[in-house]
Specification:
With about 1050 residues, this protein is an alpha+beta fold. One of its GO terms (molecular function) is voltage-gated calcium channel activity.
């Protein structure tokens, strides 16, 4: 073998390095040739490439029209949303009519199916009251839950009485919804849960399903606290909560006050803004960082304020006038900034009394317009000051409640929602409200249910249905985007919410529902894409992006073209991202239906489980069909009403025919006893751009080293609704003709020792040629490593005694293009990042440009928080407090950005995981550098190393001499660091706003006690004057 000096760089600096370079080159070449031969032979890659070549003249390559693609997608999604909206409108009409026909009867006795009590029996075996026999059958359409498709059930919060007259009457008249529920489901079998959330507190759900309380026998669910209910029932609002912490509030009263404030926070949604002020003789902002302003009522902010409520203590005297003035000033100033809800405003007053009416304060700040509603909550049993507080409510279009015990809190707090919803109800606005994605991957759509004919301004409740995101994802023509990034974005007003993206699926923070687009496409520094989609524009955008794969440990660099448009009739936008190059092209093939169906029905063939070739969900009679069965019936004309994607089916039939010869090829290898005698190769597999896959086992299934591979357990290794398999995507990014080798992280962590090898198949020898398929094998790690060590024993010495050997003089490693170790003498290091083992060498490789460090961001991270002794906890609290101030200040208007890393010194003690944002590095090799050498100075000792690419692969051999101790050099790790980010984000406000209505009855303003005659006389002229305006 002749080695050319120009390829070896520094190898000629000294004889030792020259021999080392020569040996490494020899070993790399030998191993590369051997492992590629094995991979190509058992995967059948050359055969498959030839078979596609044979059809070259009968296929047509086309460039994907991204604009047309996204517009067609928007039209299809518009149809899905329209059908769901129609279903809820039918529920609205039925509910209003049923209530109109019903006369409330306080003595009504009615047995209904209680969701908790159905099918429950007493000690004697008899059905319990409100239980009864309720037929339940498993249904795969509802996640295999046991349901009743004929009836709904009713859930009543644990803190409410099941037979309260209001509950019984509401349940009685809402039974009329059962018929509509069933009819909706028959019209649209893709519907899932339908429901009616009553303003009285009960929740009617279809189909009927049994609810199970927690270990304490409690079901804390109250539909009126859910985001979908709050958004549909009320207009966006700015709220200041005033809490009396004067000396008279000590003990139980302060406990009730805290719970009252917490319950008020439960009723605020992400369209709302708030702040909390505690007052005695002074004004105390519960969060000192937020003096004089309001903050968005998202879950994180509300939880932050709840933590501060426990720090309140009572002392001194209460100067309510100063607190009211402060609250009015905040609301006025904040409104003038153009931020916040720009709709309704309210002051919630939690106190044990008011010695006067403070009409001078109201006259200065709130009259005559009365833009700010006042909602006083009198804490305690005494009613000496009830008249003053109720007068405040009535004079300012609010509502007065008295709360005597903790049990009274929930229902009394809820009463203010009736008042806030009155303008919407009187306007008879059935606003369709679309929420963001929920944790169970359902996009919830709700329609406000109103009633006017008998009791003006009375909210009956909210009806709604869920839209599974999977239903929307099925609309994507995945065979056209193939190895491109499959990103579909949905946005809702008023704040951008991304309802779907593969980056969001790896794990969820507590209270996670959705993330902002800027947290996914973070390379869009100027927010061009985000702002365009927030404002529902149609257009295109391009940028270089970095996408993480394999549990965030690897990175793919690509150039994406984005296409976006609005979805008519909704507040949503949809966008699609296509990667340039091969991802911009697809091809159309053609074979006979008979040949295609014959090869499609072979036992080694499977279709992508979450792809929709035929929509078997639309008609009940089609639900039992597999996709292959549905395709056969459709193509043979036996089911004319079955809706299928004819283009996709034609392409999958083409792939079935082209890939069919591999079944016989693999079988021949398996039957040849002289082949694979040590069973080092376990599986051969292929996948095509149409979602078709074939597999062949070379060993019995129970002997597989990794039995999860290519199963539903291996989510990144199979075709899903949102992505192609990882081995397919990564192979598509490699140079054509090369194999990609890796140890799957999903298995390496569990010590399942396998190596995957895959390569992409191109249709044509052209840069515009699309990737049509990928093939690969799974082999035992021990088999793979043995081939490596065998190659490393080769040398050119005539006597067979090598002057350099991995056995003693040097440390030999085999790493991949992301720096992860596949082979090393120390088995425990297998799968680790190379920089953790050889930090000094990795640093040198980064300096020389052989590898590049790429910084990535994780906005769904969980960080460890340490709690130690009281002293250490206090120190941590101080650090956290400063950080919180920073976060809260810039979260006021949905701001989040600034390059500030936070690495607080943690104290020893108990740890817990808390939500955080992190920055972490990934590493990728420089493709143009095939080999290089370097020297490292380890405290005066010079250590040499050689890195050499393995031909036709993504692998590198790294050889390091071991004569120096470089253990003092710090490792290069992929550890994340916590960061805080802030940017000002563009938002679109809700289009619907109903702050007041001239027909409101302001005298419906309180409970618990009646106004005294003098106060009534004082109030009536005020109310009259208000009405006249």
């Amino acid at each position: 073998m002749h080695i050319f000096p120009q390829y070896l760089g520094d190898c000629w600096l000294n004889s030792y390095l020259s021999v080392l370079c020569f040996s490494v080159k020899l070993w790399a070449s030998a191993f590369g040739g051997e492992i590629k031969s094995i991979s190509a032979k058992y995967s059948g890659s050359q055969l498959l490439q030839k078979k596609y070549k044979d059809f070259e003249k009968s296929v047509r390559v086309e460039e994907i029209d991204g604009v047309k693609l996204v517009k067609n997608l928007a039209v299809k999604m518009e149809e899905v949303f329209r059908k769901k909206a129609e279903a809820t409108r039918r529920l609205v009409e039925a509910a209003e009519e049923a209530h109109h026909q019903h006369e409330d009867n306080p003595d009504l006795q009615y047995e209904y199916f209680n969701a908790v009590l159905i099918n429950e029996v007493d000690e004697e075996g008899n059905n319990v009251e409100l239980g009864g026999e309720f037929l339940l059958e498993p249904n795969d359409h509802f996640n295999n839950l046991s349901v009743n498709l004929s009836l709904s059930v009713v859930q009543v919060p644990t803190n409410m009485y099941n037979k309260d007259p209001d509950i019984v009457n509401g349940v009685y008249w809402s039974e009329a919804l059962n018929k509509v529920f069933v009819d909706n489901f028959e019209r649209d079998p893709t519907l899932i849960w339908q429901y009616f959330g009553s303003a009285k507190g009960f929740f009617r759900q279809y189909p009927g399903v049994k609810w199970h309380p927690d270990e304490h026998g409690v079901i804390g669910f109250d539909c009126r606290n859910r985001k979908w209910y709050i958004q549909a029932a009320t207009s966006p609002k700015d709220v200041v909560i005033l809490v009396d912490v004067s000396g008279s509030m000590k003990g139980l009263r302060l406990t009730i006050a805290r719970q009252t404030v917490s319950s008020i926070l439960d009723t605020l949604g992400e369209d709302d803004f708030f702040n909390i002020i505690a007052y005695n003789q002074e004004i105390h902002y519960v969060e000192p960082c937020l003096n004089g302003t309001l903050i968005r009522a998202d879950r994180t902010n509300k939880d932050h304020f709840r933590e501060h409520l426990d720090k309140l203590f009572a002392k001194g005297i209460g100067l309510l006038g100063d607190a009211l003035a402060e609250a009015f000033t905040i609301l006025s100033d904040f409104n003038q900034t153009g931020h916040g809800s720009l709709c309704s405003q309210a002051i919630m007053l939690v106190t044990d009394g008011a010695t006067e009416m403070y009409d001078d304060v109201f006259e200065k700040y709130n009259w005559p317009e009365r833009k700010v509603r006042i909602f006083p909550y009198l804490i305690g049993r005494e009613s000496a000051f009830a008249d003053n507080l109720k007068w405040m409510a009535c004079a300012n279009k609010g509502y007065f409640s008295q709360i005597s015990t903790l049990a009274d809190v929930q229902e009394n707090v809820m009463r203010y929602l009736h008042v806030m919803s009155r303008p919407k109800v009187i306007d008879h606005e059935h606003d369709t409200v679309w929420t963001e994605a929920y944790v169970d991957s359902a996009l919830c759509m709700c329609v406000l249910n109103l009633f006017m004919q008998k009791n003006q301004g009375i909210l009956l409740g909210v009806v709604g249905t869920d839209i599974p995101l999977q239903e929307l994802m099925k609309l994507i023509p995945k065979h056209m985007v193939q190895s491109a990034v499959i990103c579909v974005y949905f946005f809702r007003n008023p704040w951008v919410r991304i309802c779907y993206h593969k980056q969001c699926q790896k794990r969820r923070k507590p209270n996670y529902s959705s993330v902002d687009l800027s947290e996914v496409e973070w390379e869009d520094k100027d927010d061009f894409l985000r702002n365009a989609m927030v404002n529902r524009r149609t257009g295109t955008f391009s940028m270089e992006v970095k996408k993480t794969v394999d549990r965030g440990r690897r990175v793919l660099k690509m150039h994406n073209d984005y296409y976006f448009t609005d979805i008519k009739g909704t507040p949503f936008s949809v966008g699609v991202a296509l990667s340039r190059g091969q991802g911009k092209y697809f091809f159309r093939g053609n074979v006979s239906v008979e040949a295609g169906l014959r090869d499609l029905e072979q036992p080694d063939v499977a279709l992508a489980n979450e792809w929709t070739y035929c929509n078997t969900e639309e008609q009940h009679e089609h639900r039992h069909l597999t996709q292959i069965q549905a395709i056969k019936l459709f193509m043979m004309g036996r089911r004319p009403h079955l809706r299928c994607d004819r283009e996709l089916i034609q392409e999958v039939l083409f792939d079935a025919v082209v890939t069919a010869p591999l079944e016989a090829y693999w079988t021949g290898l398996a039957l040849n006893k002289s082949e694979n005698s040590d069973k080092g190769v376990e599986i051969a597999f292929l996948g095509t751009r149409t979602g078709l896959s074939r597999t062949n086992l070379f060993v019995p299934a129970d002997q597989l080293s990794n039995q999860d591979f290519l199963t539903a357990e291996d989510k990144e290794g199979v075709f899903n609704a949102d992505h192609f398999p990882l081995w397919y995507k990564r192979a598509a990014e490699q140079v054509p003709g090369t194999f990609l080798y890796s140890i799957p992280f999903s298995t390496a962590l569990e010590n399942k020792s396998v190596v995957l090898a895959s390569t992409a198949i191109q249709l044509l020898d052209d840069r515009k040629s699309p990737i049509v398929a990928a093939v690969g094998i799974q082999m035992k790690l021990e088999f793979f490593q043995r081939k490596f060590w065998t190659a490393c024993r080769q040398c050119t010495a005539l006597d067979g005694k090598c002057s350099i050997s991995c056995d003693n003089d040097i440390n030999c490693y085999l790493i991949d293009n992301n720096g992860f170790i596949l082979v090393t003498e120390e088995q425990s290091q297998t799968g680790l990042f190379f920089g953790e083992v050889e930090g000094a060498v990795m640093n040198k490789l980064l300096q020389m440009g052989s590898f590049k460090r790429i910084m990535l961001y994780d906005y769904q991270a969980l960080c460890k928080d340490y709690a130690g002794s009281s002293d250490s906890a206090r120190t941590l609290s101080d650090v956290r407090h400063n950080i919180s101030c920073f976060l809260l200040e810039f979260n006021l208007y949905s701001w989040w950005n600034v390059d500030l890393s936070v690495k607080a010194q943690r104290s020893r003690g108990k740890t817990m995981m808390v939500p955080c944002d992190t920055e972490y590095p990934a590493f990728v090799s420089e493709r143009t550098i095939k080999e290089t050498t370097g020297n490292i100075d380890c405290e005066g000792c010079i250590r040499s190393f050689v890195i050499q690419q393995i031909p036709s692969s993504n692998l590198f051999m790294v050889v390091v001499d071991n004569k120096c101790d470089c253990s003092s050099s710090p490792p290069v790790t992929m550890d994340p660091i916590e960061i805080i980010l802030k940017f000002q984000k563009d938002r679109k406000k809700p289009e619907s706003c109903h702050p007041f209505h001239p027909e409101e009855n302001a005298m419906e303003c309180g409970s618990a006690t009646c106004l005294s005659s003098p106060l009534t006389a004082a109030l009536l002229p005020l109310i009259a004057a208000t009405i006249s305006r």
